[in-house]
Description:
This protein is an alpha/beta fold. The chain contains 16 helices and 18 strands.
Amino acid sequence: TTIANRGQTLAFPAGFVWGSATAAYQVEGAAREDGRGESIWDTFCRRPGAIAGGHTGDTACDHYHRYAEDVRLMKALGLAAYRFSVAWPRVQPDGSGPVNPAGLDFYERLVDELLAAGIAPYATLYHWDLPQALEDRGGWTARDTAYRFAEYATAVHDRLGDRVNTWMTVNEPWVSAFLGYGMGVHAPGLTSSVDAFRASHHLLLAHGLGVQALRAGGAREIALTLNLAPVVTPAQVNDPGLALSPADAEAVDRVDCLINRQFLDPALRGAYPEQVLKIVDRIAGLDHIHDGDLAAIHQPIELLGINYYTPCVVRSGPGLPANPAYPGTEDIEFPGAYAPTTAMGWPIVPTGLSELLVRLSRDYPEVGLVVTENGAAFDDTVSGDRVHDADRTAFLEGHLRAAHSAIEAGADLRGYLVWSLLDNFEWAEGYNKRFGIVHVDFGTQRRLLKDSALWFRELVQRNGLRKDRARRPTLEEVA
Ligand code: GBH
C-alpha cells in the first residue's frame, strides 16, 4: 500500500472504508415487536443490580423505527459503511427451528435503505444477544449452540445474501465467554471459569461453522471480529521496545495468549497455543475440544475485525490470585492508572493501536484488517444544539494518526469504523456512558451531531487527517 502525504493532509489509501458501528441490543429497542423472542440480555437486565440505573434495552435508540433517519445521518456524514448486528431472537425467536419472517423484514428494510444511500452494510451475526431458549439449554457452554448458530447464519444469508457483501460472524468471543460466563458482569451472568473456557471454544466453533454456512451460500467477504489489545508492562506503555525481566516476559506472554492468541491462532492458524491448552486443561479439562474442531474453526476468511479500546497492562505479581476476568493469570498483576482515562476508566493509549495493527499484519499476513470498533465514552455536555466533545475528537484523531502510521509501517488496514454512531445502551453501564459521535436524547429520541461527528465528516471528505491538527492529544485535553 502506498499513501501519499499530500500537502496539508496525512492521506489514507484510496478506497479506505470509513464507517460507523452499532449492535442490535444497544440501539434497536422494539424488544417485543414483530415476534422477537427473548434474549439473554432481556433476562439479565431484569436481574436486580445487574445494570447501572436498572436500565434495559427495551427502547434504546428506537433504531428499529428510526433506522431511516439514522441512515440519513450516516449519509450526511459521508460514511461508506455501517456495521450493524442482526438480533438472533428476531430471526429465530426460540434460537432454532422456524424463522420469523417479520424479523428478517426489518434487516431487509435497513439494508435497502443503506444501499439506496450508497452505504455498504456490514452485517454482524452475533453481538451477544443469544436467544434465551438456547441459554435454557446451556447457552454457549453447550456444543449444540454452535450448530444452531450455523443454521441461523444460513437463514440470515438466505434472505440478505444478495445484498450484503460483508459478513461478520461473532463479535468479541472473549467478552461473551469471560465477562458473560466467567465474571458474570454480562449476560447470562454466570461465574464459572470452566463455563467460560467451554463457551470460548464453542464460540470459536460457531465462527468456523458459521463461515462454512455463509460460504455455502456464496458469501464473498467474511470476517471474525475480536477485541484485541497489545499486552505490555506499565513501563512499556511509553517505551514499547523496553526489554523485560523473564518474570515480566512470562506474564506478558501468558496474558497475550489468553486474550489475543486464544482466538487468533485457532481461527487463522488452526491451533491453540500450547500455553492456552495447558491452562484450559488445568481449569476446564479438554473434553469439550473434539477431534476436527480446530480444522472446522480454521476457515479461510478475508478480513479480521479489530475492536481496540485500550492496551492490557500487566506485570509479574508473585503470589497474586488470578484476575477473575482472566482465569489462568495467577501470579500476575493488572496495574491500572498508567495513563489518562475515558469515562469508562480505560486508559487512552493511541500508540497501542499502531502496535497492534503492525503486529497483526506481521503475524497473520494472509488476512486484511479493518478496525471494526474504536471510540470512547466521555461526559458530554449539550449546549443548545451543539455538543462540544473535544475530548472525543482528540481520542479519534490520536488513534487515526496511529492507524495511519501503522499503514505506513506495512499494516494491511482497509477501513475504520467508529464506535459508535449513536449514544446507546452501554451494557452493564446502561445509558450513562455515551460513545456516540451523534448525541441521543433518550427522552425525546432527538439526534444531534456532536462536534466529533462534524470533525469525522471532514476527515472522510479529505480521506485523511489535517497535518496542522494531527497530533497526539495533550493530557489536559483528555483529562
Ligand atoms: C465493545 O467491547 C463492544 O463490542 C461494544 O458493544 C461496546 O459498546 C463497546 O466495546 C464499548 O464498551 O481492562 O478495564 O482497561 C469492548 C470490550 C473493552 C473489553 C475494554 C476489555 C478492557 C478494560 N473491551 N476492556 S480495562
